[in-house]
Amino acid sequence: MSTVLVWGLQCTLDLSLAAGGRVSAIANGFLEERLFPRFEKELIEIKEGGLSRDYAFRLDDAEGDDPADMERASEYLALAGTLRRQVHIGGNPAVSALRARLLREDGLGQGAWPRSLYGGVLPRTVAEHVEGSIDPILREIFLSDMAKRIDERPQTMAIESASHKLIIDWGRGRTLEPLMDDGTFSSFLDAYESEREARPDDRMVLALSVPHPVHLRAQLIREIRDRFGREITLAIGTSSFRRQGGRIDFDGAQNVYDTILQHADIVSMNELELGDLHTAIVGGGQYSDASLAFKIKELDLDAITVCHSGDGAILHLGSRPHELIRNEEFARNPFEFAQDALRFCVDGAAYCIDSRPTVGRRATEAMVRAYSNSVQIRNEHRFESTFRLPDEHLPAGVITVRSPSVTRPLSQLTGVGAMFDGMLFSVLLRD
User: Fold this and answer.
1) Alpha helix (H) ranges present in 304-410?
2) What 3-state class would DSSP assign to 355?
């Protein structure tokens, strides 16, 4: 018996650029070229103050945005020169799927790792990239019967400073509509059913980022649970609960909590998402100064819930970890297994930043564990300021790991959260 992890439901072909101290000049160039006019205010902020926080420009032709601005911006950045550029398959599910699959390559006890496949919308640009690649792993992951091809070209551009990023996203081809037929997802879920029937002794796990649009996500989760019940494990990686401009989308957070998170078996989020979700759900719109270590428990989810940041991570075991974690090591020593799993993910994410992309982001289990054993300094004080209040005891069931100190990052930040999820769901569900 083994585990099959199916990652869905969207992917893109993306461009990442390490801009360093040139972010302000790039924003000024976009303004001079009259690119992304709906986000002029934000571009002026970046021009004047750099990337003091993360920004996200979600382009939508219904809002008057011109998709050609993406191509013009790419041409402008190419002419700017000396920026470290990387073209790769993006979208959180795709990044997680690739990271999870690569752990198996020459890893320790690799037969126990889940098998990773992509299932969902497969845009033409990604399909062509995979088919033109000499990497057999890409074909193994993305050219499955669970990937539905569509004739769209979604793209994300990530422009990074040392600590923050500007994400510019053209999203057509990343939503749920192409997966529907006659108003339901039944024909799409048939592919999952076929995979499950072909491997009757295997456990099926559906790992999703929060799907869009809002009005279809509840239907999708309901159809999954109605059809498969608890025979399919549902793992969720959340995304930002903030609107353009930085305000919390309280209605959106409540919708995600009600329609997705309460039906999930494993949930992963970053520190900002946890804080915003707690404000929306527990605080009823009012911020609480409780620590994140207590907020993760106060969400009152049955799921195993993890919050990660650049300073470390915390894990709450939820109400039924024994039903989800089948590894014999967990049965013998639940705390030791859970803490080792969390440390593996925290250190694996740090390794992604602490080394070149071709090394850290493709690291096997053996490479991550070797890196973990070599760590000499961890972010003790930063962890405490992020996750705990001074002299505060940890609530019952919460496990913590401090991250390695990375003083000279060699890789982009974009996608590290998705890589963390790829490792997390894999190591927790490893047989």
Assistant:
1) 321-324, 328-332, 334-354, 357-360, 365-374, 380-387
2) coil
Q: Is 182 left (phi over 0), alpha (psi -120 to 50) or beta?
A: left
Cα–Cα dist 278/159, whole Å:
29
The verdict on pTM exceeding 0.85 is yes
- Give the integer Cα–Cα distance in Å for 365 and 351: 12
Task: Provide the 3-class DSSP secondary structure of residue 6.
Answer: strand
Where are the chain's structural domains? 3-13+89-153+173-428
How far, in Å, CA of 339 to CA of 315, rounded?
8
The structure tokens listed for 163 are: 């600590």
Neighbours of 282 (CB within 10 A): 16
Q: Where does 3-13+89-153+173-428 sit in CATH, by number?
A: 3.40.1190
- Tens of pLDDT, residue by residue over 347-394, are 999 998 888 777 877 888 889 999 999 999 999 999 999 999 888 888
User: Is 84 in a helix, a strand, or coil?
Assistant: strand
Q: Give bridge partners of residue 56 from the DSSP assignment.
A: 167
Among 372, 371, 351, 358, smallest CA distance to 416 is for 351
Contact 135, 394 (CB under 8 A): no
DSSP state of 399: E
Determine the Cα–Cα distance for residues 249 and 261; give it in Å rounded to an integer: 16
Q: Which two tokens stand for residue 293?
A: 């270590």
Show Cβ contacts of residue 197 under 8 Å, excluding neighbours closer than 6 positions: none
Side by side, which strands form the sheet with 84-90?
Answer: 55-59, 165-170, 155-160, 12-18, 84-90
pLDDT tens across 196-226, in order?
A: 898 888 999 999 999 888 889 999 999 999 9
